[in-house]
Write a structure and sequence with these properties.
By secondary structure, this protein is α+β, with helices and mostly antiparallel strands. The protein has twelve helices and 17 strands. Helix 1 (12-23) packs across helix 10 (284-292), helix 2 (52-59) packs across helix 3 and helix 4 crosses helix 5. The radius of gyration is 21 Å and the shape is globular.
Amino acid sequence: MTFRVGVIGGGQLARMMVEPALAMGLDIKVFAENEGSSAAIAATQVGDYTKISEVREFAKTVDVITFDHEHVPLNVLEALEAEGVSVQPPSKALKFAQNKLHMRARLTELGLPMPAWAEIKTADELNAFIAENGGVAILKTPIGGYDGKGVAVVRQASDAAQWLVNISDFGGSLLAEQKVDFVRELAQLVARRPSGELAHWPLVQTVQRDGVCSEVLVPAPNASQEQLNRAAAIAETVANGLGVTGVLAVEMFETADGQFFINELAMRPHNSGHFSIEGSVTSQFEQHLRAVLDLPLGSTDSVAAHSVMVNLLGVDDLNDFVSSYPKALAAYPSAKFHTYGKSARKGRKMGHITVIGNNPETVLADAKGAASVCLQG
């Protein structure tokens, strides 16, 4: 018997699912948005994922539908589910990933730790929230934002005048959140099968630059066992409470007194879990495939004491990093290089580098050093 997995979205996450799928003997197919996508090697269909007719044809060729991103319209997914298609994660979970207001409301019901938040429809409501939260707030578009997009720091409603004028573009509301005074950002990954089995990786620290993840340190330095347990419990509560299947990433802030506040969710493999390809017995990509097919989950044990992942972010429209690989490979033989097959563009996630080992300082230095060689072009 061959299990057939269909991935909607042709980005790097779909690309990195291909290798474990082939290793496990799975038949993986990708519905890509355009020709020449990162996952072109497995793209059996190119089209518009917002059109039910096109997605329906794709669904006929696979046993389960899963995702490279969370943007497929809910009405498309609900139509597939009504026709008996296995959609993982299901529409009932993805609705929380697609709308941050819905996500905040559900997490509040579950009693999970979050910044103070409010739904904003008017300038007066925004000014009132800002006044109640120390004179500053984080304002977000409930739909469509990622990697720092759709997020703004505001101190008065006039700072968000353009969003308020065009509020209908965001479903008629904005999300205001307390600006958390945090000491670092963390991410907890967990995988869940439809039948309920859960497995989690170690808590990681993420380092952001210009709103985009730059580095991931594994495990999160100096995290106590109590914190590790608490983070895992939070992620498992989210997965169970929202009905998530596959890999879930819970991004959190940590404050100086050790509290955690949930920032964002991702219901798919996530940048903070790329380290697991080399750093874990079972990578997030293999685990995601296991989970959406409702197969037994693999061990998430670390294969080394420490892992570091450094993103290769585009510096211009010329350097795709590939030409630098010979020099970087020679200088850092312990580094593992992953390229996403994308054309160069400033700020774009072009690939990543992972180094694993027993000395955290050496691992970090080697990962950053290898990235620096690549950046030289």
